[in-house]
Amino acid sequence: MKKMILASTSTVFGSTYLDYIKDEVKLLFRNSKKIIFIPYARPNGLTYEKYTKLASDFFVKLGIEVNGIHEYKDLKQAIKDTDGIFIGGGNSFLLLKKLIDNDLINYLKEAIDKGKPYLGTSAGINICGPSIGTSNDMPIIHPTSFNALNIIPFNINPHYLDSISNSKHMGETRETRIKEFHFFNSQIVIGLREGSYLSVSGEKIILKGNKSARVFEQNKKPYEVEINFNLSDL
Description:
Elements: E1 3-7, H1 22-28, E2 34-38, H2 48-59, E3 65-68, H3 75-81, E4 85-87, H4 92-101, H5 105-113, E5 118-121, H6 123-126, E6 155-158, H7 174-181, E7 189-192, E8 196-201, E9 204-209, E10 213-216, E11 223-225
Parallel strand pairs: 1-5, 2-3, 2-4, 4-5, 6-7
Antiparallel strand pairs: 1-8, 7-10, 8-9, 10-11
């Protein structure tokens, strides 16, 4: 049975790293002593070591050991031997390419489907849907495919921003970009705002946090769903 927390962001304004979902993370990894961190997305070009330390500094407060996957020779065995998985934010294209290059896509999917607890933030939730086609990131590198883990039945647009009325900005809004995506793709897209996250237990995908989410379906008008809505009902 899948057990996941999928958060739009790792840090909300005025808080420290992962602190706003600390209780949910503690519950998710309540039976875990050691988890593996996958730092491939490398926000701001952080080294794997510094990014892993950022994660480790949080989890040590929960009594959980964190090791970066880059520290292991046998990556698949490393995933198998730990009690949980965390993939942080950064660039989704880079993250997906590294997962593909290391032949980890199907292995991660299988581990999560079988119930290994999974925490993802930002890019770490982009890869959970059918594709990374609704990422906000620049394609700084080219994975061989945009197809992702497909462990939830829709795409996510993390850090979703609403249009600002009377704004003088002339660029495309998030809603416009997602409508462009739906010219060529049929999967539902969830606009997940800052401070919101999804709690996944088996087939239930419950919206949590402090904001509603925006749902985009091909050839339909976007609409809102409120906190505690089960997105698997879509």
